[in-house]
Structures are given as structure tokens and as C-alpha cells.
Amino acid sequence: MSPVHFEDKCLFCKIIQKKIPSKIVYEDESALAFEDISPQAPVHLLIIPKTHIPRLADINAGDEKQLAHLFTIVRKLAEEKNILESGFRTVINSGEEAGQTVFHLHVHLMGGRAFHWPPG
Ligand code: AMP
Ligand code: ZN
What is the CATH number of the domain that holds 28? Predict the structure, then answer.
């Protein structure tokens, strides 16, 4: 019996492997960005590392370059979606109490409407 790997279980790993369809807006060797299936704003994208990191709580020093790379992609996509100057919100939920539902690290990029603070 072959072992079950997290890549076979994780929704976003399946999206990376193109086993589940998604509307991809950016891809390179280490990261992927795609449209959120349940958008909470006119622009709602998810930017993810291709490496399976479950939560922000699980990062370590070796991930610094990868994490910075995700935010460079955020900026690029915000510019492409014309929300760079109007403003945009980035969110990373880490853990259940924060509302994380998919346990593969992702940055939400949202824009195209006004946001409130503090968030709910
Ligand atoms: P979080 O609650 O921070 O873990 O965010 C998970 C996000 O993934 C939610 O905004 C969902 O709408 C989104 N999502 C879940 N399944 C898919 C999918 N198949 N394709 C795109 N986005 C998804
Ligand atoms: Zn994963």
C-alpha cells in the first residue's frame, strides 16, 4: 500500500498540480496566484507558495525569500488589477481561531471596494 502524501490531501497542492481547476492569474517555479472561488471583493486573489507550508505559524528562517516573493507578486497583481493606488487589503489567516479553512499558507489580496477596520 502506498503512503498518502499531503499533496494528495491538500486542496491547494491539488490546484498547484492542476488536479483541480482554478483561474490562475500568475505562476512561476515557486508560487501560484489564482482567483478565490468565493470572492469577498471585486478583486480577490490568493497567492500561495508551491511548497506545502500549512500555516504562517509553521514558517521558519529558511522561508524568508519565499515569503518576500509572495508579497512581490501581491504588488504586481495589485498593479495589474488597478488597485495599487486606490488601496488593497492583504490577509493571512493562521489557525482555526483566525478563520483559516485551507491549511496551505495563502495570502488573500482583496481590493476594488472600501474595507473596514477592525476586521470582524
Ligand atoms: P482561509 O479561510 O483564509 O483559509 O481562506 C481559504 C480561501 O480559499 C477562502 O477564501 C475560499 O473561498 C478559498 N477557496 C476554497 N476552495 C477554493 C478553490 N477550489 N479555488 C479557489 N479558492 C478556493
Ligand atoms: Zn498544500
Answer: 3.30.428.10
